[in-house]
């Protein structure tokens, strides 16, 4: 077997993802499978059958430690929360950097830091507050590279912290803490106060001085603020913290405490904790798919769970010496968490003719979830019998937890009573964005995002031609039943934006009953979803027993920061209509604009000239200031921008290319220390943003001039100036790598065209 046979000869996207993300150098498929499976025939068979895949770090890194590479096999870590002193705060920053350098994402909780205004015994007299140090941790995340990408970070805070209101509002400024997800720990006490519309106390006691900082707030007002910011910014996420603490195998273990969650929130972990991931593809356990005889193969599914638990324990042992920090090695050795999850749920239900979110689907997920939990616990107990239980295993405490009682048969309970458990945590549901895209299935717990996506091709004359690319499960169904119009698909083909949020929450709640860790969850909602709807969604999730979630509203302001695209159909293009290779000439009759840009190295000057009739970009000149960068580089970049614009490339495409150039460390440092840099993350980005700003200014001037003269602006050539509150649909959120639409699901931005993904 080779990768084409494994993924499908026509699945070029999946093949590219495998080659670029998981394949080591030029190893062939069989060598890769043997390396990743640890030469375990049972595991290799499951991988080849696409029934089980390890998480991305394992697929990319397993076995490469013997080549001298500094790697980890764990996807995620939770840092020991910083103590309330400057040494501890910066110590955690250093440990974040070290963990990122090995490829791990991190979570960190700042609830232990003093609130703004608390008295301190140094030159400052009072602290700038816990929120101020989020910038430090975000900057570290931005600076440390991970094989062409940046680290992922989750910052959380408790709902009783006096800085919580500033925390909620923080990311309404789209330029602050841009490299971290943020979430609030919501306690039962707070949620009950919300429901009763009672007052809630914010309180912090500073140990060093004994000072108490406290105030009273109306819980419902705070909850409303959370709903409002989620409605328009998709953050902060909600962590129902008491549910997290109480619904797991360690709820009665006194020595154990959760310290935070990983970047996509599916993994609550102790201080220094780590978890490696793996997912079972539910779609490949359906026999006779798309027919009345379709049935789920429970025996084979249970066998797969057993093999996967064993395989993940093998990887855990191999990875113990590879963790970046000693505290991580100690935590993993003591608690032995693994995170076995699922993907392909949406595809599985379609193959069985069951509508996602229906009563039938919820009931079936309960059956499936129980089987998975009971089997995983039994498999861990069998391993404990032959290899020993995890170091902190107290059998009576484990068996007395509500989670254990609800998810085990008498036979499994007897195994645990006799052997203990090899693992303290077993199940999770991660986003699986890249894995599921590679296989062409739905990710994590999500329904299929859309039945089809629009793709664009260009004719020889430069005309945009759009065509439909059907989601693989939709394409297979349509071919099976000779359907040519997707409007004729049966009702089981619900998608993320057409699904009622109540049904989406019911599905998550069903799975959460059987998952001892948590679930990475993004509820995608339509643009018309209201703030009141958002409040009801979060209340419903709490009442149904979910551990956390966030929403992403189509067209929210957060969508606007993912792209610089607007409607390209109205963009004036200087070289439009010319043959390939022809370049428009210019004369002195132009509109000139100038901007001074502040960058990481100093300053540079950007001059741009525009067509006086259409406002199209014609010419760009860049020169460095007295302390700027390389002048020859600036000249070369300006020449390429100029010739591109006069050859018929529109300004948005040019800016897209400039925005794909990455982050400059010196730029990041200056922005953090001085805060005076121009918009962007490096010189080319700053130039692109300046060009777009000048372009929009010219368009507005031409519009006003035309209106003053009593005429209408030439709309076929000029777009209206984009407005800050312009609705941005899911189709206008674009991938920085290939320019195609992104989707936001499971806490990650994912490109279905090239496989690019980012947990943001």
From TrEMBL:
Which EC class heads this enzyme's classification? oxidoreductase
What high-level taxonomic lineage is stated for the organism? Bacteria, Bacillati, Bacillota, Negativicutes, Veillonellales
Q: Which species is listed as the source?
A: Megasphaera cerevisiae DSM 20462
Family per record: Belongs to the ribonucleoside diphosphate reductase class-2 family.
Function summary: Catalyzes the reduction of ribonucleotides to deoxyribonucleotides. May function to provide a pool of deoxyribonucleotide precursors for DNA repair during oxygen limitation and/or for immediate growth after restoration of oxygen.
Instruction: List each copy of the Ribonucleotide reductase large subunit C-terminal domain by range.
Output: 74-551
Swiss-Prot/TrEMBL catalytic activity: a 2'-deoxyribonucleoside 5'-diphosphate + [thioredoxin]-disulfide + H2O = a ribonucleoside 5'-diphosphate + [thioredoxin]-dithiol
Protein's name according to its UniProt entry: Vitamin B12-dependent ribonucleotide reductase
Required co-factor(s) are: adenosylcob(III)alamin
Sorted UniProt keywords: Cobalamin, Cobalt, Disulfide bond, DNA synthesis, Nucleotide-binding, Oxidoreductase
